[in-house]
Write a structure and sequence with these properties.
The protein is α/β, with parallel strands linked by helices and 140 residues long. The protein contains two helices and eight strands, in the order βαββββαβββ. The chain has helices at 21-31, 92-101; strands at residues 15-18, 35-41, 48-54, 60-65, 84-88, 105-112, 118-123, 129-133. The strands form two sheets. The protein has a four-stranded mixed beta sheet, covered by helices on one side. The chain has a four-stranded mixed beta sheet with strand order 5-8-7-6, with helices on one face. β2 and β3 form a beta hairpin. The chain is globular and about 45 Å long.
């Protein structure tokens, strides 16, 4: 019997750097529904050098802590500004309450858009923006 193995290679990884990487992992998994795939410790106690989180409909993000290295680098500056990621989700109504319970702040209420999407935007505890909607992009 021939078995076909389906492998998906993710070609784009939004990468976010947090002051508190452990809190970010908790928010992203419990609040937004990401699945933790890998996490490696950084230099400081409790810091994250590199974590990969899968988004169940496809794709993922990488997360790290600003204190992951003994010496700061240019990516640490990301903690000083808001970052933004859009997530495709079939049931944003159900996800919004989960995100709020995990500490999200509503930035844009749940609504229907004129381009056919239904979704919302929230800020995570460090101010990064997460938009969730049914819009999947243009079909290619």
């Amino acid at each position: 019997m021939n078995m076909t193995k389906n492998e998906t290679v993710i070609g784009v990884w939004p990468t976010l750097v947090y002051r508190d990487g452990q809190a970010a992992l908790k928010f992203l998994t419990e609040g937004l529904g990401f699945t933790l795939v890998a996490s490696y410790p950084g230099a400081a106690e409790g810091s994250i050098a590199h974590a990969e989180l899968a988004w169940p409909p496809g794709g993922g993000v990488m997360v790290s802590s600003a204190d992951r290295n003994a010496e700061p680098n240019e990516f640490d500056k990301l903690t000083e500004q808001s970052q933004s990621v859009y997530l495709v989700h079939d049931a944003p109504d159900a996800l919004l309450a989960q995100a709020i319970a995990a500490g999200a702040t509503i930035v844009r209420e749940l609504r229907d858009e004129d381009y056919g999407s239904r979704g919302f935007s929230v800020a995570d505890p460090e101010g990064n923006l997460w938009s969730v909607g049914t819009y999947r992009g243009e079909i290619r």
